Amino acid sequence: MQKLQDKRILLVEDESLIALDVMNELQGEGAAVSVVPTVTAALIAIQSAPIDAAVVDHALQDGDGSEVCRKLHEKQIPFVTYSGHLQLSGECQMAPHVSKPAVPGEIAQAIARLF
């Protein structure tokens, strides 16, 4: 999947095994992946690191991903949500959504469609 080659993807996920699976999937497609587990860490990463796209879990340790989605939208960084929650709030509702658990390749395909 050429569309992900050398893309910088922020993965906001607080469950380590899920984060590892998604990271491996995206890295397998050539993306550089940064993983953060909290809303706070995601907001810092969005402000301080160059990001081409993001994958955001809605339910995080320190709150829901609404603020993360708002900041990504504000900075015009495309993103997908990846959550078991079907009722998302704020700017999270406007993004493409992948339901947990995803089939292999589904998240990479969803990110690739953003480009």
Question: How does the SSE layout of this entry go?
Answer:
Elements: E1 8-12, H1 16-28, E2 32-36, H2 39-48, E3 53-56, E4 59-60, E5 63-64, H3 66-74, E6 79-83, E7 97-99, H4 106-112
Parallel strand pairs: 1-2, 1-3, 3-6, 6-7
Antiparallel strand pairs: 4-5
Description:
With 115 residues, the protein is α/β, with parallel strands linked by helices. It has one domain: 3-Layer(aba) Sandwich (Rossmann fold), CATH 3.40.50.2300. Helix content is 34%, strand content 23%. The protein is built from 4 helices and 7 strands, in the order βαβαβββαββα. The protein has helices spanning 16-28, 39-48, 66-74, 106-112; strands spanning 8-12, 32-36, 53-56, 59-60, 63-64, 79-83, 97-99. The strands form 2 sheets. A 5-stranded parallel β-sheet has the order 2-1-3-6-7, with helices on both faces. Helix 2 runs parallel beside helix 3. It is globular and about 30 Å long. The termini are close together.
Strand sequence of the main sheet, in spatial order?
A: 2-1-3-6-7
In the CATH hierarchy, what is the architecture at level 2? 3-Layer(aba) Sandwich
What structural class is derived from the secondary structure elements?
A: alpha/beta
The major beta sheet can be summarized as:
5 strands, parallel
The CATH topology is given as Rossmann fold
Q: Tell me the CATH superfamily.
A: Response regulator
Rg result: 12 Å
Proportion in helices? 25-40%
Per CATH, the class reads Alpha Beta
Strand percentage: 15-25%
3D shape: globular
Mean pLDDT: 93
Whole-Å distance between the termini?
Answer: 12 Å
Number of domains: 1
> How many individual β-strands?
7
